[in-house]
Amino acid sequence: MPLGYLCLVLHAHLPFVRHPEYDDCLEEDWLYEAITETYIPLLDLMEGLERAGVDWRLTLSISPTLAAMLTDPLLQYRYLRHLDNLIALARKEIERTRWQPEFHVLARMYLERFEHCREVFSAKYGNNLLQGFRRFAETGKLELITVAATHGFLPLMTVNWDAVRAQIEIGCREFERHFGKRPRGIWLPECGYAPGLERYLEQAGIRYFFLDTHGVLFADPRPRYGVYAPILCPGTSVAALGRDTESSKQVWSAIEGYPGDYNYREFYRDVGYDLDYDYIRPHLHSIGVRHNLGIKYYKITGPTDHKLPYVREAALEKAAEHAGNFMFNREKQVEWLYSIMGGKPPLVVAPYDAELFGHWWFEGPEWLNFLLRKICYDQQTIKTITVPEYLEMQPRLQVCQPSLSSWGYKGYCEVWLDGSNDWIYPHIHLMADRMVELAKRHPHAPGLLQRALNQMARELLLAQSSDWAFIMKTGTMVQYARERTRTHIVNFNALYHQVLHNTIDEAWLAQLEARHNIFPTLDYRVYAG
Question: Which CATH class is domain 417-528?
Fold first, then answer.
């Protein structure tokens, strides 16, 4: 029997970005990059573990917005077009670097990766990667959980609990639509928790959720085992689990963690900026601006502008070394925790953004592969586990009221509410009130009215996405985030007044339904309670 358990949690999420009104869209690359660099490598990892007979466990949240994009035919087609463009560029790079052996081998690596991604995406999974994740979930190795519908930051939505309930319930319904059953767990967007959320989680059938460390440590009463055992929210059957700071920081921090090692690939050096403009122009978007193309030839090297060529073999050796170091640290951590917890096996919860693995940290999927294999074969102190498995083994939980918290900067709401983004909240709060008002006024809306109310719900949900406030705060793609927020506010309010005055413009509504087509089975009555 192991002395303790490790729950690895990857949070896969991207905001809903789909622009059929343009032939190509720079922001849609967020999805295409994540598919190539994170989601397909994760599926490859799981397939390799399965072939090798490794006993592994992993928890993966897939946000409803990400699931909607992964199953959208337009975006699926555009992803294949994106890959074909990269394959053409990689072939040119093989020719260009033929007298530069240190780069030539990397050009061949990228061509093989892009061609492999095309084969996996199109031939193996029929353009729908959710089929792969669902298959591994059915084996019991992968625990899939949901996310609030559009990743709304729930602590700042509690002025209207009906809107909070809708975010949670729609997230569960979308999960069921894609994976055939209701989820047992949920990832609260940004780990954002406010007291009272657990009631709505329980109504939706959720059994557990994750919190940042201080959300559990500041619970009332203070948990006896800290973050190393789940706690039970008062008056419910919903368990809360806190993030282990030590294991998390060791991975995600580019300064103190593994991803900053000098042997790993440098994210910020890309041929989209390094090479002659006329050479790469055929591979850029139609607007012609330089952007990352995904071919990167240099390693981090150190705090210098003079970067050295990336050496794949050295990077993989370092990933294996770091996996062993992480496992050793968890073994010692679990041994100490077991000794002070009176024989109760501790649960170490280590959550990360999924896109860290492969996109930001190129070697991340290999590190995870090494780690899961080492844990299976090289020691007996710890074992990977899912939350339902742990709760079945340890059903008796301490009852505590978790504290308001998030995993954002300083741990509360500052990232999503400051001078850069506070203007959005009067609008989305009013929109939520109006949505609830009309949902209760029209419990059985027919035909065109029903369509208008459903589209109002979509516009509200898309405006509530925490991603827009986050982007405004961090200063990246600010104009896009502001425009997206304004667009959904304007669309919602126009529909609201059309519904009030019975003047619904069906042609315009049809355009909105085609452009913002998220959640096709959405029922506006979820806002009526």
Answer: mainly alpha
